[in-house]
Amino acid sequence: MGEVLVGVVIFACLAGAALASLIIYPRFPEHHRQDDTSAVVRLSANLFVVMSSLVLGLMINSAKNTFETIDHNVHNFATQLIILDRSLRLYGPETEDARATLTAYLQRLVDATSPTQKTPAVANRLSELLLNKVGDQLAELQPPEAKRATALQNATQQLQKVIEQRWVLVGQSEGIIPMPLMALLVAWLTLIFASFGFRAPRNATVVGTFIVSGALAAAAVYLIMDMDTPFSGPIQVSPAPLQRALAELKQ
Questions:
Q1: Closest C-alpha among 221, 167, 230, 239 to residue 13
Q2: pLDDT one-digit tens code per residue, 93-134
Q3: How many domains, the chain?
Q4: What is the pLDDT of residue 100?
Q5: Are the C-beta atoms of 134 and 158 separated by less than 8 Å?
Q6: Range of the domain at 150
């Protein structure tokens, strides 16, 4: 919801700047409406166009890398959960309770996948308690032979890897694009749109163009912000790896 609100504010800034410039321009004194003044305004706007293009390119690349990295880590996380379950099965029927808890944990991750969620499921407190419970259940086991002791040690080490990977995903869930940079980009875009209204014809086509352009530019910035936080919003990391892992655990 916060990202949507930011997108609406950006649209209001861009379209409002263009329309305000269009309305105010005829009221400027005559010497502010000369061709030389218009040329300077256009040159200044071109400077910000170039800078905005560079920043947008960097932000798109950054958001893309963040999304791909987290998607890779989710696949890795799902694989580690499957390996942990296999290690528990190898120990024997005594680990059924731990496997049930692990399955409940993964079921919670899959069920919590939603475009409207504010906090990724991996960061949920109850999810953390379920993983900790698996560790407690493993600690209660008393392996009667060396073979089972080795299996228990492997399962414990694999659980530690799962917990570490979970915290990696938690740390990556907030995004890396700094808000001051986003604010600066919006300021540049606002100045660019304001220059569009300078000496522009006052008709419905121009007004409609400003509104549509502002909406598309705001939507682009919104999607970049959304891709930078892959656990929330319409563009999310696919839950398919976790769903496949859950199917494996339930077999």
A1: 221
A2: 898 999 999 999 988 888 877 555 555 666 677 778 888 898
A3: 1
A4: 92
A5: no
A6: 2-24+36-249
192 lies in some domain: yes
Are 84 and 98 in contact, with CB atoms under 8 Å apart? no
Asked whether residue 181 is assigned to any structural domain, the reply reads yes
- Model confidence pLDDT, tens digit, residues 2-49: 677 888 899 999 999 999 888 887 777 776 667 777 788 788 888 888
Q: Is residue 245 part of a domain?
A: yes
Distant-in-sequence contacts of 62-68, Cβ < 8 A, 24+ apart = 62/176, 62/177, 62/228, 63/177, 63/224, 63/225, 63/227, 63/228, 64/227, 66/172, 66/175, 66/176, 66/227, 66/228, 66/230, 67/227, 67/228, 67/230, 67/235, 67/237
User: Which SS3 state, helix, strand or coil, does residue 60 take?
Assistant: helix
Q: 129: closest CA among 156, 111, 108?
A: 108
pTM beyond 0.85: the answer is no
Residue 30 resides in a domain: no
